[in-house]
Design brief:
Low-confidence stretches: none
Order of helices and strands: EHEEHEEEH
Mean pLDDT: 80
Number of helices: 3
Structural class: alpha+beta
Radius of gyration: 21 Å
Length: about 120
């Protein structure tokens, strides 16, 4: 009978996942520095740094294992990087897509208002 090398069956909260959302990063941080900081907690599949003005200082870190992501989130939230305390959260797709959906809904509403103004002569 072989011994199991997997982790014990631990029930994790539903918001815990392999993708971490990191905020308040220094603008000049590189991907290599991110790998050095976050790689201490386990193998990383991907790191995505923001480069646009509205995404600078933010990043996504994807771990191979959910337990490594949990450990990194617990230990690195509030960690000082180049004089800035970073914020590490679990990525929540529902919140991200809700922002996109609300922006689309607002855009559709504006189009409908414009067409109503043209059609009915309302100003």
């Amino acid at each position: 009978m072989a011994l199991s090398t997997s982790r014990p069956s631990v029930r994790l909260p539903p918001d815990v996942n392999r993708v971490l959302y990191v905020r308040n990063l220094p603008y000049k941080i590189t991907a290599e520095e991110m790998y050095d900081i976050f790689g201490k907690y386990g193998p990383i599949r991907q790191i995505r740094l923001g480069h646009k003005p509205d995404t600078k200082g933010k990043a996504f870190v994807v771990y191979e294992d959910i337990f490594d992501a949990k450990n990194a989130c617990e230990h690195l939230s509030g960690f000082n990087v180049a004089g800035r305390y970073i914020v590490v959260l679990y990525y929540q797709a529902t919140k991200a897509f809700a922002r996109v959906d609300s922006a689309k809904a607002k855009e559709q509403l504006e189009k409908m208002q414009e067409s109503a103004k043209e059609k009915y002569g309302v100003s």
